[in-house]
Design a protein that fits this description.
The protein is α/β, with parallel strands linked by helices and 758 residues long. The protein has 26 helices and 22 strands. Helix 14 (462-466) links the parallel strand 15 and strand 16 (471-475).
């Protein structure tokens, strides 16, 4: 007679379901669970070890071992067979446990008489919460169906641990691993410190319905949902209105590969036949897969782990009939978003007044979502590997956007220290707010325009709050980056009019659309082509001159929005003067078109160029005479002058922006502007840090543009700066041989000697 291999697990799960429904105390429930497992598997021992926050596995329940050892017997993570299972997240099936090199004898348990051993990790979202063990005196290998039964039971116990029910059994001062503090070190993407509670950007779906009533019905549900999932992926890959090329396509191809993988589907079906619902089967297989992949060293396979997680979550949503969750729903007032990665538009969906920070497993300082977060003024830390799987919604969390660190479930003393940091920063911000009413002048009376960078409607209120003299750089491409299709001319015009209305006569410089390179618009096929060196490629003015329809539409929207006011337009990534002439021709054509139809035109139109490409350094005088103003894009200019990719973390600290060669370059530009009577502004990271802003003023810059949050600290430096002394100091140090000491150190000493706050 053929034995039904799934009958054992089904009977066990049915018994567990009954136990979960009974009103029992946690210890009694655990004791009865291990008894039922032992009876079902004809085992003489069944034991549950739970992982504590101090990385110790504590015996929480047993049948067959000494009952007095419960809550006393302990093994460190990695110690003994149980510790090895917890550390590796892999099952162990041994016919003679005592011969295994990791075997550790605990006299208090009395387990020396047992030989065969089967232990499985208790996993949740790939994270080990404990170990479940069965043992027998006879030497035997446990069957595959018995391993599956024990793993399925372990999943149920994992949910009990996660619910907090078992935590009540912990002794005072000993927390379970689920609440263990964890710290992560990565990269600071935007300054600031945020204390709050975790909001997972794509929250794990918590499966509450674990046990099935009808395996055939659950298999049908799985098949239907897999079919819908595969169709949706195929549809995305076949759509022609979206440029799914490069990385976009690779991710979707990985999704399709997993969705059609027979091994994955077989494991799901097997879990259902063993008594789980379809969604519980997905949760179990996802957790098993994540635990195994987390211990792989191959970086490619580890990257695929997030693809698999995303796909499994999509399948769970299909099974449960859930669409995208309403983001603002039940969002805490101190939300810190934790995500593997996310789009800029997705961040804008969150209510700004509730956001305290953003944590990314991936990302780069120049990624779109980071640019938007910077504009919103929230601290951001990225490259925090593993933070998503370790986080639960509602966990206390600290994001340190200064040091590039994240502290999950922090200890009270660490939380108190960071709370004091936040209070200190708030006191400093209050001082900066008081400075808004003071003139923006140096100690010796030289006026300096402190402007702000912007790019979205959410930036506009900060113009008044920061006390900026105007907007020195309005990045028009951000509107394109956060949209799902090209913004219509009417939408562009409305944004530009709102910007000018908010400015109330203060100057605003609009940079024409700067896409291409690393700023790929998924709906624009032309910008999605792969380039070996995207920063040096088809981008900015190069792209818009080749696609003049883009530039014409934008110029027309700007001209109409600025009717009756001054309009300042700046061209990015200019390499040669001929590009300015071509752009001016397009602008003149649009002016003639609108005049013909009696549109209200700007009172004056000033055209400027960004100095980012080093070739302009050898045509500075001609450039200054060809335009009404120039702006130095210090971020790109520095990377091109130093041949150092600004997105490469290995080069991040290799070259100093305050080095003598680069300061000499910046001085050349300032001097050229002065002798040609052409206004020069610098907008970039240099302008936003007090020490480098001080250097810029000494070089001759009288207009600098920065993030709104930087205006206060820079103004505090400015009002204490004796500019005449600094100019003479820099002239001396830049004119002769390169300084013996680094310029940064010399500037710091200059400020320290004169009590200038940096």
């Amino acid at each position: 007679m053929i034995r039904d291999m799934a009958a054992g697990p089904r009977v066990l799960l049915k018994r567990l379901r009954e136990l979960m429904a009974e009103p029992l105390e946690p210890q009694e429930r655990l004791d009865r669970i291990v008894r039922d497992i032992a009876a079902n598997m004809v085992a003489e021992v069944c034991s549950l070890y739970v992982l504590r926050a101090d990385s110790v596995l504590e015996l929480y329940a047993t049948v067959g071992l000494n009952p007095n050892a419960v809550h006393l017997a302990q093994l460190r993570l990695g110690q003994g067979l149980v510790g090895t299972i917890a550390a590796s997240a892999r099952a162990l099936n041994l016919s003679n446990a005592q011969e295994h090199p990791a075997f550790a004898y605990l006299p208090e348990t009395g387990e020396e008489i047992y030989h065969s051993f089967l232990g499985v990790p208790v996993l949740r979202a790939g994270r080990t919460l404990g170990v479940l063990v069965v043992q027998n005196k006879t030497m035997r290998h446990y069957r595959d169906d018995e391993i599956e039964a024990l793993e399925t039971t372990a999943m149920v116990i994992a949910e009990m641990i996660a619910s907090g029910d078992i935590g009540r059994l912990s002794r005072p001062g000993l927390e379970l691993d689920l609440s263990r503090p964890a710290s992560f070190t990565g990269i600071a993407f935007n300054e600031g410190v945020g204390l709050g509670h975790v909001v997972l950007h794509e929250p794990r779906i918590v499966v509450t319905n674990l046990f099935n009533e009808d395996s055939d019905e659950e298999l049908r549900r799985l098949e239907d949902s897999l079919g819908s999932l595969r169709l949706s992926i195929d549809d995305m890959l076949e759509r022609r209105d979206v440029a799914f090329e490069g990385e976009h396509r690779e991710v979707l191809e990985a999704y399709r590969m997993f969705a059609n993988d027979r091994g994955w589907v077989r494991r799901l079906e097997e879990a259902i036949r063993n008594g789980l619902t379809a969604e519980a089967a997905v949760e179990k297989v996802q957790s098993d897969m994540r635990a195994r992949m987390m211990h792989m060293t191959d970086p490619y396979l580890r990257e695929r782990m997030s693809d698999f997680d995303d796909l499994a979550n999509r399948l769970l949503r299909q099974l449960l009939g859930r669409g995208p969750e309403t983001i603002a729903e039940s969002l805490p007032k101190d939300a810190i978003i934790v995500a593997r990665s996310m789009g800029a538009a997705e961040l804008l969906d969150y209510p700004r007044d509730r956001l305290r920070g953003l944590v990314l497993e991936d990302g780069a300082p120049t990624s779109h979502v980071v640019i938007v977060a910077r504009a919103m003024g929230i601290p951001v830390a990225g490259q925090m590997k593993g933070v998503v799987s370790m986080s639960e919604n509602g966990d206390p969390i600290i994001v340190d956007g200064v040091e590039g660190a994240v502290h999950l479930r922090p200890q009270p003393d660490l939380e108190a220290a960071y709370a004091e940091k936040v209070r200190f920063r708030a006191r400093r911000q209050e001082l900066y707010r008081e400075l808004r009413k003071k003139p923006s002048e140096t100690k010796d009376g030289v006026k300096v325009d402190l402007l702000m960078n912007a790019g979205l409607a959410v930036d506009l209120p900060q113009l008044a709050e920061a006390g900026a003299a105007g907007i020195g750089l309005f990045r028009t491409e951000l509107q394109f980056m956060v949209a799902s299709t090209f913004p219509r001319a009417e939408a562009q015009e409305k944004l530009y009019r709102d910007v000018l209305d908010t400015a109330r006569g203060r100057p605003v410089t609009f940079r024409t659309i700067d896409i291409g390179g690393d700023k790929v618009l998924p709906y624009f096929k032309g910008s999605a082509q792969e380039e070996e060196n995207p920063a040096l490629g088809w981008r900015a003015i190069r792209l818009t001159l080749d696609r003049p329809g883009l530039l014409r539409t934008q110029i027309r929207a700007l001209l109409k929005a600025a009717g009756g006011r001054e309009l300042k337009v700046m061209l990015p990534m200019v390499t040669e003067l001929g590009e300015i002439a071509q752009a001016r021709e397009i602008i003149d054509r649009e002016v003639r078109h609108l005049s013909r139809f009696a549109h209200h035109l700007p009172t004056s139109l000033k055209l400027g160029a960004m100095i980012e490409v080093p070739s302009l350094l050898w045509q500075l005088d001609e450039l200054m005479q060809a335009v009404d103003f120039v702006s130095v894009g210090s971020n790109d200019l520095f990377q091109f002058v130093m041949a150092a990719d600004r997105g490469n973390t290995q080069l991040a600290d290799r070259f100093d922006t305050l080095s003598v060669p680069f300061l000499r370059v910046l001085k050349q530009i300032a001097d050229a502007g002065l002798r040609n009577h052409t206004p020069v502004t610098l907008c970039g990271e240099l302008a936003g840090k007090p020490i480098s802003a001080m250097a810029l003023l000494g070089l001759g810059y009288r207009s600098i543009s920065m993030s709104p949050a930087s205006i206060g600290p820079v103004k505090a430096m400015l009002t204490e700066l004796p500019l005449g002394e600094l100019t003479a100091f820099l002239d001396d140090n830049l004119a002769g041989p390169a300084a013996r000491l680094p310029m940064r150190a010399l500037l710091q000493a200059f400020a320290d000697d004169r009590s200038i706050p940096l």
